[in-house]
Amino acid sequence: MLLLGGCAVAPEEDPVQIRLNDLDSRVGRIDRIVSNQSLMQMAQRVDSLQEEVRTLRGRIEELQNDNAVLKKQQRDLYADLDKRLSDTAAAAAAASTAAPASPAPEADEMAQYNRALEQLRARNYAAAVDGFRALAASHPAGQMADNTQYWLGEAYYVTAEYDQAAAAFQRVLSGWPNSRKAPDAMLKLGYTQIEQNKLAAARATLQQLVAKFPDSDAARLSAERLTKLPK
């Protein structure tokens, strides 16, 4: 009997198994690569979405700030208009206790004027515009004609119809340069020109107001506004 000595001989590996093991190893490496790429793509997508969210939040904050500014501007417009209407009512009450002016406004003119003014007080701006325009057409040279044009301009101004507002304020200055409403009309014309981005014209208007009516409240407001205009 032949005896085998020395080390035992390892059984020969199956080629098919070797091939399968190699394929398994390759598939594993491919899975890891694909997984890593997918994770990178997902991370990039998350970063992109986070950037979009930050951008949108920034835009929302800008819009909220713009809205707050617009609301404040609108409140200021209403407050200014209410003050001017109150001043007008007080002046009318004082005038009614004084000696009657000569010549006095016609009853029909005064009735139309009061109706339009009441619409303005109630913030029915479209109705106020219609009322003042009708009054201007029916009494173009009436005793309240300068006031009519001024309040027509105010109704247009508060609704941001700046071209029409400027035209109405300019008619006061052209037709009644020495009217009690002239300083206020010049002030609001300057404000209107600012809203129209006609800054050079606005500066000239406000400077003219300070020079022509230096002791008026309108001149004081004009001087304040001039300091805020860009050079």
Keywords:
231 residues; mainly alpha; disordered N terminus; Serine Threonine Protein Phosphatase 5, Tetratricopeptide repeat
Give a short synopsis of this structure.
The chain has 231 residues and is mostly helical.
Please, could you describe this protein's structure?
There is one protein chain. This protein has 231 residues and is an all-alpha fold. The chain has a domain at 105-228: Alpha Horseshoe (Serine Threonine Protein Phosphatase 5, Tetratricopeptide repeat). 78% of the residues lie in helices and 0% in strands. The longest helix has 83 residues, at 15-97. The N and C termini lie far apart (119 Å).
SS-derived structural category:
mainly alpha
The CATH class name of the domain at 105-228 reads: Mainly Alpha
Please identify, by name, the CATH architecture of the domain at 105-228.
Answer: Alpha Horseshoe
| Percentage of residues in strands | under 5%
What can be said about the biggest beta sheet?
none
How do the strands and helices of this protein lay out in sequence?
Layout: H1 15-97, H2 107-121, H3 125-138, H4 145-158, H5 162-175, H6 182-195, H7 199-212, H8 217-228
Helix pairs in contact: 2-3, 3-4, 4-5, 4-6, 5-6, 6-7, 6-8, 7-8
